[in-house]
Amino acid sequence: MVSRCISNISLIVAMFLGCSAGIAQDSLAWKFTAGESLKYVVQQSTQMEMDLNGQKQAMTMNQTMDMAWKIASIESNGDTKMSQIVDRVQFKSEGGPFGAVQFDSSSKDAVDSPLVKSMAEVFKKIVGQEFGVTMQPTGKVQQVTVPPSLLKALTESGPAGNAMNEDTLKQMMTQSAVTLPAEAIKAGDSWESNQKVELPFGTMTVSSTLTYEGTENGLAKITMQPKIDVKPKEGAPITLTMKKSEGKGTVMFDVAKGRIAKSDLDLTMELMVKQFGTQIPQTLRQKTSMVLAE
Description:
Elements: H1 2-23, E1 37-52, E2 55-74, E3 80-95, E4 101-104, H2 114-126, E5 130-135, E6 141-145, H3 148-155, H4 159-162, H5 166-174, E7 190-199, E8 202-216, E9 219-232, E10 238-254, E11 259-275, E12 278-292
């Protein structure tokens, strides 16, 4: 009788623990301390295939960007004011109409290629500039301030600089922070995130479904399912149509420290580019990673 009673109590306790584990909720939030500095390395590799009048061409591009987040203050409402700085940009491409191209913003070597000179003129104006960013604990960026001196310098850089306007620079600074729900979540919960990127040929919209998969060893795993669409810009010399897009990604978020430890995103896009009356099918395969270096 006693053993049966103990057995029943054990069963009830086990059931209770099982139910509690099933409904356990976690709170995820970005956390910073005034005066600290974070270093992120963002790497992106792109493989592009295109069909030019029946002739297939391939091009590969690799870009690495070193970024610093300098935390200035934490406001009474929990918002964080920080400076985001691009410390270094490295770029390498092979194939395509320009052949082999390589650029490193930290290099002091003389540049011969007109294309590399054009890139250097733009990126060297961006490197070292402090962008003012205000971020909520959810990761939502409330405000981005672009240095006026940078905007003036880019305007004076000609066509290459004009491609990087104020909106483009602001969007570049807002894309590194994953947006989290304000309320507590449990494994299996999903939420939506939407980003718009203004490009010379139109507006690209990235709509992502994020799902919390649970926490292990202090890292919350969040999976991403992005969907991409492009709205052509009226009067643009190039028209881009998104035929198909698919992708997946993973974010590993340090719960205790309140920041991304690592993120990966794989995208495949099938596009139709129309220029001067010619239609060019393109396929892009892109891998992007962001790693906390310090």
